[in-house]
Amino acid sequence: MRVRSAVLREMGTPPPYAESKPLEIVELELDPPGPGELLIKVRAAGLCHSDLSVINGSRPRAMPMALGHEAAGEVVELGEGVTAFAPGDHVVLAFVPACGECEPCLAGRAALCEPGAAANTEGSLLSGAHRLAHAESGEEIHHHLGVSAFSDHIVVSEASAIKVDPELPFELAALFGCAVLTGVGAAVNAARIQPGQRVAVFGLGGVGLSALLGAVLQEAGTLVAVDVVAEKLELAKELGATHAVEAGPGAVAAIREITGGGAEHVIETVGSAAVLSDAYEATRRGGTTTTVGLPDPSQMLSIPAVSLVAEERTLRGSYLGSSVPARDLPHFIDLHRRGKLDVARLLTHTLTLDEINEGFDLLASGEAVRQAVIFD
Description:
The chain is α/β, with parallel strands linked by helices. It is built from twelve helices and 18 strands. The mean pLDDT is about 95.
């Protein structure tokens, strides 16, 4: 079938993207779903810094690629052997397809699925197949993280899809696939914040504000939000932050003063080694620094090695919020429905597929928290 899709042909195109237009809206030929795959009508897709990092070249991927990885939609057709889904089901897509059989999956660490990681690096589906090609030239187009969400229809592995409550609006459902799983998961699964603990969150995009919501859910005591954008700091306070600190040279000292020597848990979501260094400095003795950001692979982190032992410090990474999507995503949606996760406040803009380059300008400027492309 023919689909409209946002395709990136070359990384590193300079902004403003409204002028340089790195994402081209083109017609692609989408093959039917193969065994264990689903045809999905995409209804909403979120814009994430992980997409932006591919556009600007800091997260290299195979080109050309149909971009996008945070999405919700409706099942249209089943591939051979699929029994867990039916046409009409509402689904959220996770950007790591969990095979369920490799060592990390069997250990409950679906985010580290080995075949899933290999497929994502290759730009294929979990099966190794490519289902997208240019409608005119036949050129093969790579899949982004097994999803390629900026398309009106997609084929995905059933391992990428989680069935969700059909009453949840698609534009909110999409955010659970990346922003909420990553941010809330970092607070709940990785940091494991306990009631009353002092917490700081660096970076207040969709993932950072989700981490803040997760800290509120975990009943953090002092909760410090850190960002350069004043409007995001105000939103963070409305969502439960007890303090707001402007990012910059004085941020670490301010956090240490507010928390009486540093926070037990500091979550970094920016994707910068310099910001991660600040987050580590803002963590108290015996505390844990959790990072979910994805810096350019060339960036290196330097910390006092002795502090890991002499101060019993922990520095850990968290991918996909250290989540098991099939377990955590329905739980987080249930918490949202019960008023415990105000995910709706994260959605600041909606746009059409044709406005996607302008949307990435908004994201790069920090003006937007989460934007969603809405498909008819």
